[in-house]
Protein 1
Amino acid sequence: MSEAGFSYAFPHRDLLGVSGLNPLDVRIIFERAERHLARNAERDKKGSSLKGLTQINLFFEASTRTLASFELAGKRLGADVVNFSAGNASIKKGESLADTAETLAAMRPDLLVVRHSSPGAAKFFSELTGVSTVNAGDGAHEHPTQALLDVFTLTRRWGEIGGRRIAIVGDILHSRVARSNVSLMNLLNAEVRLCGPATLLPADADRWGATVFHDLDAALEGCDAVMTLRIQRERMAGGLIPSEREYAALYGLTHDRLETAQPDCLVMHPGPMNRGVEITSALADDPERSTILDQVEAGVAIRMAVLELIAERSGERTEITP
Ligand code: NCD
């Protein structure tokens, strides 16, 4: 039974993407996360719902905040957490992804958290190992916990995001954060706008359920929130922007640029942030506007909620299949 007074069991044993979630799933995740957020502000943060379970964080791409966030989430729920990162993984020694998956499965983990540069990698691990898996970013495809923590942050400010106008600005082409956020914001009936130079917008962006803009002032008109993204050079084949200075002049967020937005327009960034390029320091650090640190704090709570919910579901499955 959910706190909202209806009976609905979270049905997923993996979280591979936002697609596949319905509004009730999101509501259950947010209710859980709200409780974890409160507990995380206390001195004693330690729960025991994942006690006895082993969580492996398998990161084939560099990460600071997402890895730390998943590690803290697992530990605060009492799981034994092991991090494998690309630098020391056998994949560097020529092992195939399938061999890595089978080797890890033989260690009998209960939860996998996977980040990889290839779309579909987390699904591959889930299918091959049968272990409950969270996608922590697969190429430019999906990053569902990031979208959940972003929308959770907005929901806590506004009550709900339905009917709100939100712009996502920058390197949409290479961004799994943008893809997952557009899906989730659409699911919850927000109006989503995408803005960036044509070279950084996917060819099919107009079919994402968002309105596409190339002019930042037009995109920001009437917006309740704007999320700006880093230029993801590591995912670019060639130079898709002329220079950082020119990019900053056209698409960098500043206090002045927000003039056409709602007076209380919030400013978001998933991090890592390049100050002076996609956002000025003054705006990133503006306590009235910036939600950046709230997003990081929400991230741990959201990941705790997701790990707990999928672990409960996979536990049920184990019981009925001896
Ligand atoms: C993002 C990612 O890795 O997709 N970062 C994150 O998870 N906080 C965005 C990025 O790399 O720019």
Protein 2
Amino acid sequence: MATAATQSRTALELFGMDGLLSEEERAIQETVRRFCDDRVRPHLAEWFDKGTLPARELARELGKLGVLGMHLEGYGCAGTSATAYGLACLELEAADSGIRSLVSVQGSLAMQAIRAHGSDEQKEEWLPRMAAGEAIGCFGLTEPDHGSNPGGMRTTARRDGGDWVLNGTKMWITNGSIADVAVVWARTEEGVRGFVVPAGTPGFSAPEIKQKLSLRASVTSELVLDSVRLPSSAMLPEGIGLRAPLGCLNEARFGIVFGALGAARDCLEAATAYAIDREVFDRPLAGFQLTQQKLADMALELGKGMLLALHLGRLKDSGDLHPDQVSLGKLNNVREAIRIARECRTILGANGISLEYPVMRHAGNLESVLTYEGTSEVHTLIIGQALTGLPAFR
Ligand code: TGC
Ligand code: FAD
């Protein structure tokens, strides 16, 4: 007779999710999952505990794997579908949000900004090396006093002869202190513009932000621009106004729509296995109705989130995805992922707070994911504006 464990199916199996993916998408997902299992997962507890990440080494391996800028065309990028990129993000975040962040910021923010708004020379100089993971990029939009409202930014770029001179401070910048190149957004006389700032430029520094209780396996930094002088060729010529950086955010937010579900899936799998194994009051915790209700509710939210992610992926692949729709996915899937992580934590009891299990690490990471790339309040307001036509940000 089969045991309870051999009869059980995962939430996504129950939804028949694999049947919605192409063979190529399944192959890409499986490759990234295997990479994470072999190369990342065994070290995560230690990296998280110590608050470190061997980012440079990992970036090269991720480059070889082909996930850096994988959905972009040309310049050494694989040009996969958006859905395949989403599935890769899901597997990376099932390992840790910090690993997905490394990939998101590199591919969807820094490379995307150069790909969409850069000159041919900027693309040739940076994109092939960034796709290979030989150069790391960061994306500096947020400032200490302007996060949700980047339109209020104080960083300036002023013309001085043929040069640009940048002054200001960016805050909470992923990959900042390990980056070879920073894409920095600054106010100019003609509106917001992006600049390609090579690390090592005099006046540029990127002190790391320490004592984080979330995204500990990820490098987060301040960017200080103290009269940084750049040639005129450093400006991204094709992007003007706030819509240029906000357009890049759509790409990274799309990855998070899938990614957050990876963290949720990992929590649910860990909690289910734990509940089947753990005996309370002389029988398996998984056999109690209260536990099954928790598992069933979480499976439903995970599956519904996945259907939403795939729907948005298909819309993006057909060129029909609107930024408002990305907000639907980011708001729902991160909110549900964090609920799932917290509920799974209860199933693990005291073990739930230990790094021996991935659940609390994911729950802690998801606090950042809830805030970055547009807070849940910002995405709520974007959806509110789409529904009513009335902006309520100010
Ligand atoms: P608003 O007047 O609405 O817009 C200014 C211009 O931008 C256009 N636009 C967009 N374009 C493309 N995609 C979008 N999502 C866009 N949203 C707006 C808009 O059409 C307009 O264009 P134009 O031509 O008319 O000038 O701007 P607002 O100042 O009222 O702000 C709106 C708001 C609040 C939604 C926006 O500022 C916002 O999204 N704030 C959140 C900021 C944010 O998400 N920051 C993330 C920083 S990067 C990060 O967190 C990386 S985390 C690491 C990781 O990803 O792993
Ligand atoms: P605030 O904007 O000060 O918001 C504080 C609170 O006020 C939030 O709850 C918010 O939702 C709420 N609020 C704001 N406006 C409104 C409103 N109109 N109505 C109602 N409530 C409102 N940024 C980058 O540019 N690049 C990066 O690589 C990057 N990486 C990050 C990595 C990590 C680990 C973290 C934590 C952040 C990162 N960020 C990055 C910054 C991130 O994008 C911002 O933290 C985020 O946009 C929110 O800005 P804030 O922290 O200044 O919060």
Protein 3
Amino acid sequence: MGKKIVWRCPSNIAIVKYWGKRQNQIPASSSVSMTLTESYTEVELELSEKTKDGIELEYFFEDEKNEGFAKRILDYANSVKNQLPVLTESRMVIQSRNSFPHSAGIASSASSFGAISLALLDASFPGKYVNDRYEFLKRASFLARIGSGSACRSMFAPFSIWGKNKLVRESSDEYAIPDVDIHPTFRDVCDSILIVDSTPKKFSSSFGHSLMRGHPYARQRFEQGNRRTVEIIDILERGDWEKFIHLTESDALTLHAMMMTSESPYLLMKPGTLLAIEKIQHLRKEKGISVCFTLDAGPNVHVLYPSEIKDQVVTFLESSMTGIVNQIIHDKTGKGPEKLR
Ligand code: PMV
């Protein structure tokens, strides 16, 4: 039995979306996300002596050999092997597990590449970062970005900023930074994920990003993403739920509007997505409570609200979404990645 390292990395949900990129996962505009806690990937990396030349890496997802993802991990390993000595010095077995059901339709690449990067970085430089967790996470964020852009934001909690923005100090295209001035009301935000449809996506995020090249509204969207990054940082600092709701819902709809107005237009929302959105907006108007939705590049609906009104919102969702959603996953802001072994 070789040495084992285990890392847990949470998923994140963007409030200001990243949509459109340049080579090497460099974002076309800056984004801000909320890091979750219950939706995570755990990666166990087992190291042993090498038996042959080249990268020796076996990958298991939920105890099974998953050829598709294994190929993506191997391509990733090849692209970062010069920065992570463990990749060429040891034989590796990676066991990856998600906390959420495989069939839920929740994108797992952010938490997966997050956890893999943390484990590989830790194994490559044992002891180097013991007194500097921030540097370690920044480096892990850089490496995770190469695997999956949005993964870089999972390193920090409760909110992260990614993408060079001239109005945000220390922001970078290459790694995420934590948003540090967060009002207490935004340190504890609930995210109830309504699973409307869990069939595999017909259009990958990479395809969506590529359609932003030459998109008729690309320039306006990138300017808006940068502007909204600055706005949301201010909203999170001041604790303004009203403005948070307005900006969050608008940015989710803008993301989908970009898909619908591209050269190859497509729709990811389902009838259930719209029904759920209407019910959430109705609840907000009727009861005057702070609740809103956001969307990923898919049909599922993330319902965001302050933790103080959790009981009220959960009761509402459990009773009013029957027949519209298959499953509800109750998540919330978390504390970021954790080393388990
Ligand atoms: O990181 P990718 O390539 O899976 O793209 C993520 C895109 C969105 O989830 C739609 C937005 C975002 O900022 O996370």
Protein 4
Amino acid sequence: MTAGPRTIVLDCDPGHDDAIALLLAAGHPGAEIAAITTVGGNQTLEKVTGNALAVATVAGLDGVVVAAGCDRPLVRDAVLTDPRTHGASGLDGPELPEPTVPLDPRHGVDVIVETVMSHPARTVTLVPTGPLTNIATALRREPAIAARVAEVVLMGGGYSKGNVTAAAEFNIYTDPEAAHVVFSAPWRVTMVGIDLTHQALATPDVVERFRTLGTTAGRFVVDLLDFFGPAYRAKQGFPAPPVHDACAVARVLDPGVMAVRQAHVDVELRGEHTTGMTVTDFAGRDGRALEHLVATELDVPRFWDLVVGGIAELR
Ligand code: BDR
Ligand code: CA
């Protein structure tokens, strides 16, 4: 029996790397996007939702549900990404098309719940690439989704470092309470954090591969990276920009593209200097179950073949 495409819900806050993740999921035959939901994160909910509709339009996703979810973290004030990283729009660089994909009037959280509950058990994979507010709220609204999803493969966290603070990565730092709910629920969570995503650097040869595609989607990615690259270099000293969120989609499409280790992940909620840290225990201290998977090493050539190949399928 051959496995068909994986049904996914992409919960995102585009964002340059969210946009590349979306294009990858849209183009690659190994994924079928059941819904795209947005969450306030890199920019306001209004902006990231507009961006998601524009990117879905570039991807030709005319029949796919796009719905706006939560506009702020569960209990804290919003922390928007420094505009030097994603620009004032959240997606500076490319010229965004007027969306032809309509906004679904339902709340994104309802869409997540309805999508999971209306598909056969364990067939929908949730792929959050922003703060985890929508996913945690969906779990609260309908706890039965925990037993029904195939798995949660999220971009966020890290086991050795942070990127907003020394300890915390942006998606988890923005809404640590939501992340705590998601990591504590009885479903399989794979954490694709910054230890992994910092290996996914869009170097000049990669940009050239997208340029060579000669397609609308290929040019769009080049325009994204032309903004994202200098932004990451100026702000964080990276030689090339890491396409964090595309790594989570890649893991779903081709699990062998990265090595994972079993671990127990706790989200720090009360640290003086460590709030939002994903405290990762690989050793099962005090008899803790190692119920999470944590991505550690990326097969870089295989990753870029997957991403460029997937996006090459788009017009
Ligand atoms: C994460 O933060 C956002 O800026 C990116 O889109 C990514 O999801 C990386 O820390
Ligand atoms: Ca993101």
